[in-house]
Structures are given as structure tokens and as C-alpha cells.
Amino acid sequence: MVIRRFLARSVMAGSLGLLGTSAGAGLGPSGAWAQGAGALHTFHIAPGPLSEALLTFSQQSHSQITSDSASLDHQASAGLTGRFAPAEALQKLLTGTGLTYRPVGDNAFELVAKPAAHPALPAQTPALHEAEGSSTPSYGGTERIVVVGQSIDRLKNTNSAVTVLRHLDTDEYRSLYDVTNRVPNMVGNAAGLPSIRGMSGEGAAGGIFTLMSGSRPRTAVIIDGLPETFGGQRYTDTGMWDFDEVQVLRGPQATTQGRNAIGGAITMNTKDPTWDWHGAAHTGYESQGNKGSFGATLSGPLVKDQLAIRLSGSGVYGNSYIHYAGKNWPYNPGEINQSTFRGKMLWTPKALPRFKMELTGSHREQNGEYLYQATGPDFSKYRFDNTNMNTRISNSSINTLSDKFSYQISDALTASLLYGHVWYDANFNQSNQLGSANSRGRLNLNENNNTVEQRFVYSPKNGWINGVLGLYYFNRDQQITSPDMGVNGPDHEQTYALYMDGTAHLIGGLSLIAGARVEREEQKRNVKMNWGSVSFDGGTTMFLPKGGLLYNFSPHDSMSFTVRRGYNPGGGAIDWDRGFYYQYKQETVTTYELSGHTEQFGRRFSLNGNLFYNTYHNYQDLLNYTFVNIPQGRSMGLELEAQYHVTQGLNLYGGIGLLDTKIQKAPTDYAYAQGSKFSNAPSTTFTVGFDQKFRSGLSFGGTVNRVGSYTSQVENGTGITAGNYITFNMHAAYAAKYYTLRFYAKNLSNELMIYNARSSWAGSYAQVGQPRAFGMSLEAHF
Predict the structure, then answer these.
(1) Cα–Cα distance between 154 and 269 in angstroms, integer?
(2) What pLDDT, in 10s, does the model give residues 615-636?
(3) For the residues 651-658, what does the mean pLDDT come to?
(4) Rounded CA gap, 52 and 97, in Å?
């Protein structure tokens, strides 16, 4: 049965143009940007008596309901004037219709008839897997009406390849690293950031090489507007509890994200406070490593329609799936102890109806395992038992505090200012299983950083041009201290940027995409080591343009072509063998990308496609423990993502990524690398899955993920083939009015997942994924 979809929005938010799009899917002639101070709500309405009662239009000073195809008749059930919270406005709209509402989550409500009520949809319903571009999620039950609210006060760049995941099951997707199986041309990494389109997320190096050189990641990770420090997302994983969405943008994102985004960007947004009280509590158990998990959330208003808060906490406790031999470890190498606590406050004062303030604070800490490294020759034993090798644990914490102010200057123009501060304290201990003195080491990395970003978003209703103008500043002070590993010294970095990005409607369905970023980055580094020192004082000023065309064939079918540039700065390092200081250059990429989007069968089916070609200059890699600039390299590929809501209860989804990479020209001293593929660049990734829901509250689903083989290091004889695995995940749940019971299985086929593997004089080692695991959880909600 076709589900009709209606959009209610604040006029302050500007054009509806591109809500629910991805991969260049511009919906409407108004361009490729959507941002504002209000909240946008999507009404998913199944035909029936309840839906007919809701098909009303209410004239209001700043809110309206429109159809995707045409405006509804002006038949008012309740006249609205003034400023209302979403829940209050909805209740007034329902006056005289015989309906009322029940909150079921953040800005989400279930409409029920009086006096009989329909079964409640639990808060934080799992496994919806709604991706940007999917227009008709299924809820099971032909008479159920659900109103889903989505904040749009965050920038949406819709002419990039982007996968947006919402309502993720926090058991199946416990970490950012678990979403890699849903994204084409993205592969996991046990100890570093995921690789996107063959670009290693953590950059050209990891571990001690990063600390001594200050090399940068290639994938920007941004949580609630603040960039993560280099090691923050692995050493202190934020988890996935109480997150609203995860966006994975593939390809260089220099125009809007700037720093550390030559390979892509991952933005994670936590849920906002609500204007009605609700809460949830979660507890779970997983067989692999005897892990226990918890989560709790409480959200509601302190002052009606003016001040609301949201408090959440989560954690995972247990042991690693790696078995550590020996009894002489100076620490427990298999311990996993991770927790996150967060508080958010939303202030919308009546005295300033166009003003909004969001204050966010968080504390994260992680103790124990983070490398997930097994020793050879048989990695399938998941053992670390080579006495010649060391492993490390992390005892790290991150504290963040941010404040975001937004003010709607006019119906077309909104200004926002973000300030954030991050305190990062990472402590590492290393040893071998013998606990021998020459293997033991300690290292501390202490960092304070500040982010300031001012944005002006211009998005007039039915305007021919819209876009964003931004100013950005970032600084970082870092101190590395190691009493016995011999790496000590300060590092200071600061970045200034001015950027703009927007779309101008030309004629018919044709629009021009244009943007640019001017960025100045400076670094001072004075890190001393036992065998040399890095004394680097340099800066880079980059002009990063972007341009293209967007054509809308219809409100639901579009195509775009863009050309954009990205970069990563250079730095200085110490030759590992000979001890002398050297510098390596910045790397740059030019990306050509053709993207398309279509929705068919009453918008129940959506398809996104991206065809890209990248040319790299001075591509950075670590060869023979030395940072090397590879003069020329290229990558090209295809990505397809589809979703089909077969029935109201059955949803099918899938994606495929094809990738071909090549080092076209190598330095003379590393001629063996010429013609090789990039590191961590499988030629094929593939995902297919389904979710089935029933009106009784029962649901189940599964995912199959395939990753092709790849080399984990472009080095002469040291890299071992990784990838080449297929995994199966399953989940089932029963949702009642006040609780949800879930069961899940990960890696059902017990496939050996090798992310990265190398051989050395001491033997072979690999970072491996989790073997088969079963789990269950109970969640209570009100």
C-alpha cells in the first residue's frame, strides 16, 4: 500500500528544496542547501480514516503543511497564531478531529483516535535503517500515523556522495566502526579510522609514526560540530547510544569541512532535548568477551517551550576477543572498559523568538584494549602469543564543551556561531607477555583545542540562489611525554579559513553549483626522540575550489556533476634507521564526480549512484618506515545504493562499491611501488539486507556484507593480503508499550576478518575483526 508523505516546516528554515536527498539528489529548483532555525517534520500517513482527518491546512505566522506535489486545500481544523513547540502546535492542529497524539521519541509522535488508542511505537525504535533519500519508512499497520521530526539546523551538502543512517540499533551498531558494512567503498580498521575510496582514514601512518611526525588523518570525524582529535575516535570510542544520525560523506570535503577531509568526512549528531518528558534505559549482554552494556536517557522541558535538557549515559564492559598468552603482563591487555556521559540544554526564549542556544557537554573514557591484534602464522586462533612482540593498552579520556547560538535575521537569512573546547588526555602502556623491562613503555598525549565557526545561511523561499558563507578558526596545543619511549615535546597547530558554497538556479531544472575555501594552516612542532628530533615550523595556504551543475528532471529525480579539490598538509619526521630529520610535502587530489538520484513506485524505491575519478599529486605513504610522496596516483569507481519499501512492514536495502586504484608514478628509490594499488583499497564492497516489522511488535532482519581482498601496506614483501571476507548479521526484536526485547548475532559464519596484516623480522601480525557473537538486550522506555 502506498504511503503518502507530507512535509511540515518552519518558514524560517527556508526552502524545502533538498530534504531527504543524497548523492546529488537535489529535490526542487531552490538549490542544494537547507538550513534554518526551526524544525522540519515529516508526516508519514497511511490511507484510512485517521489520515483523512489529518489532511488539513493551518495558516500560521511561521508554519505550514504542504504536499510533495501540490499545496493542500485551506481547510483549517484549528487556527494557529504565535509561536508553538512542535507538540503543542500538533495538538492544536488536531482540535476537533477526534485525534490526539502520543510522544514516541525526539520530535516524533504517534497519532491515535479517541477513545481507542493504537499500539504505541516505542521510543528509539530499532533497525529502521532510514537513509537520506529514503522517503517512506515502514512502520507496520495501515492505520498508524507517525510524525517524525528532524532538525535541519545542520548544513546539508547534497551534491556529495553521502550515506545517512538513522535509528540504528545500538546493539548491532555499537560503534562508528560498525557502520562500515553499510557504506559502499568503505572498509573497517581495527585500530584506526575506516578507509573510504582507498584513502586510509588515519592518514599515511599510525602509532608511533603519527606521534613523532604529526601526520594528519584523511577522514574528518565531527561530533555535534566539533572535530575529533586524531586518536579520539578509536582510543576513546564514543559509542552509538542516543545518536540521531551518522553521515558518511565520501570523497574530499574541503569546501565545507576543511581540515583532514581529503578522503571524506563522518559527521555524528546526538539527539536534541525534547519538549515532552521521556526516557529510556538499556542493558545488554554479548557472548564474545562476556561483554555487558548499559545505556540511559532522560529528556524533557525545565521551562515549558523555552528550556529543555537531555541527559544520557552509556558504557561497555568486558574482555577482548583476542586471547593473550602469558601471566607476566604488567596490565590486563584484554580489558575493555568504555563509558560516555553527555548533557545537552536547549534554550528558546519567548522574549527572543528568533534566537536559539544549544549547550552540550560530554565526558568519555576508555581503558584497555584498542589494537585487536593477533599474531601469526594462524590469525584465526585470535591469539597474541609472540614473545618478541609488544602490544599496548589505552587509558584515555575526552571532555568537550560547546555552545551554539543561532539567530534568524530574516525569513531568508540565518546566522549561527559555534564555540567548542576539547580536553584530551591519552595514556598508553606497552609490554610483551614476558613483562620484560626492555619491552615496557609509557606515553602520555595531552591536548587542548578550540573551535570557532561562524556561518551565515541564505535560503529564501522560492529563491533563485541560496548558500552558506562561513568563517572558521581552530587551534591545538599538544604535549607528548614519554619517560622511557623517548618521544617528548610540544606541538602547536592553528587553522584559519573562509569558505562559501551554494547553488544558483539558472533555467528550467538546471542549477549551478559553486564553492571555494581559502585555508591557512600553521604548525610548530619540537618533538625530541632518543635518535633525533623533529623541529618543524611551517605553514600552508590553500585555495580549494568546487564547481558543477545540477539538473532536476522532476522533484524526485536529479543528476549532478562536480569538480572539487582537497589536500592534506605535509610535515617533518625522523628517519627510523639513520636518525636524521627530513620533511615530506602536502598531498592534493582533484575529484570529478557524476551523481544521480531517483525515486520510483510512489517513492517507495530510491536509488543513488556515484561515478568518480580522482587524480592525486604527491600522495603520502609510509614505505620502509619513511614518509614518501608518490608523484602521481589515481582512483576511480562506482557506488550504488538502493532502498525499497516493499510493504509497510518490509524494507529492502543494499549497496555496491567498485574501486580501482593505481600508483602511476613512484619515486626512484621506491620503484617497486609503481603500478601497485593503494593500501586498504578493495576492488569490491557489497551489502544487502532487509527489515521486516509486524503490527504485533515483532520484527527481524539481516545483513550480508562482502569485502574484496586488498593489500594492507604497499611495501616490498611486508604487506599481507587482507579483506576477502563475507559476514552475516541477524537481529530480532519484540516491541511492547513500555519495553523492547532484542536478540542479535554478529558474524554468524565466523568469518576471519583481516583488516591489516604485515610481516616483520619478529613474525607476522594482523588486526582482526570480531568472530561470531550472540547477544541480547532489554530496553525500557516511557
Answers:
(1) 9
(2) 999 999 888 778 889 999 999 9
(3) 95
(4) 10
What is 438-480 written as a DSSP string? GG-EEEEEEEEEEEEEEEEEE--TT-SEEEEEEEEEEEEEEEE
CA distance 366 to 395: 6
C-alpha cell at 772: 561470531
Tally the residues of the chain. Answer: 782
Domains of the chain: which residue ranges?
4-151, 161-387+404-435+453-462+469-481+493-781
pLDDT given for residue 636 in this prediction: 97
Phi/psi at 235 (nearest 5 deg)? -70, -30
- The predicted model gives 276-289 an average pLDDT of 94
**Distance, CA of 620 to CA of 710 (rounded, Å):** 18
What was the pLDDT predicted at 637?
96
- Distance, CA of 27 to CA of 21 (rounded, Å): 7
Q: What whole-number distance in Å separates Cα of residue 319 and Cα of residue 505?
A: 56
Q: Which amino acid is at 702?
A: G
Instruction: With a cut of 70, say whether residue 499 has pLDDT above it.
Output: yes
**Rounded to an integer, what distance in angstroms lies between the CA atom of residue 587 and that of residue 295?**
42
CB 239 within 8 A of CB 175: yes
Grid cell listed for 54: 489529518
Taking the C-alpha atoms of residue 210 and residue 217, their distance in angstroms, rounded to an integer, is: 9
Torsion of CA 50, 56, 62, 66, to 10 degrees: 90
336-260-677 Cα angle (round to 5) = 85
Amino acid at 680: N
With left for phi above 0 and alpha for psi between -120 and 50, is residue 508 left, alpha or beta? left
Largest CA distance in the chain: 83
Q: Which of the four pLDDT bands, split at 50, 70 and 90, describes residue 167?
A: confident
Task: Please tell me the CATH code under which domain 161-387+404-435+453-462+469-481+493-781 is placed.
Answer: 2.40.170.20
SS (H, E, C) 666-720: CCHHHHHHCCCCCCCCCCEEEEEEEEEECCCCEEEEEEEEEEEEEECCCCCCCEC
Euclidean distance between CA atoms 536 and 757, whole angstroms: 32
The whole-angstrom separation of Cα 478 and Cα 449 is 8
Q: What is the 3-state secondary structure (H, E, C) of 357-409?
A: EEEEEEEEEEEECCCCEEECCCHHHCEECCCCCCEEEEEEEEEEEEEEEEEEC
Q: Is the CB of residue 777 less than 8 Å from the CB of residue 282?
A: yes
The type of residue at 753 is M
Does the structure show a pLDDT above 60 at 86? no
Residue 119 is predicted with a pLDDT of: 35
35 — pLDDT class (breaks 50, 70, 90)? very low
Mean pLDDT of 374-394: 92
Cell of residue 129, nine digits: 535503517
Q: Which of 356, 458, 406, 413 shows the shortest CA–CA distance to 83?
A: 356
Grid cell at residue 765: 601480525
Q: Which cell goes with 289?
A: 568477551
Question: How many CA atoms lie within 13 Å of 468's alpha carbon, on the beta-carbon side?
Answer: 25
Q: Please work out, in degrees rounded to the nearest 5, the angle formed at the alpha carbon of residue 188 by the alpha carbons of 184 and 192.
A: 135
Q: Bridge partners of 449?
A: 422, 476
Write down the residue that cell numbers 533538498 correspond to: 18
For the chain, state the CA radius of gyration.
26
- Has residue 155 got a pLDDT over 50? no
Q: What is the three-state SS of 212-259?
A: HHCCCCCEEEEECCEECCCCHHHHCCCCCCCEEEEEEEECCCCCCCCC
Q: What is the pLDDT of residue 231?
A: 56
Contact by Cβ (8 Å): 766, 190: no
In this structure, are residues 199 and 181 in contact, taking their beta carbons and an 8 Å threshold? no
Whether pLDDT at 24 is above 60: no
Helix/strand/coil for 643: strand
Both ends of the chain: CA-CA distance in Å?
A: 31
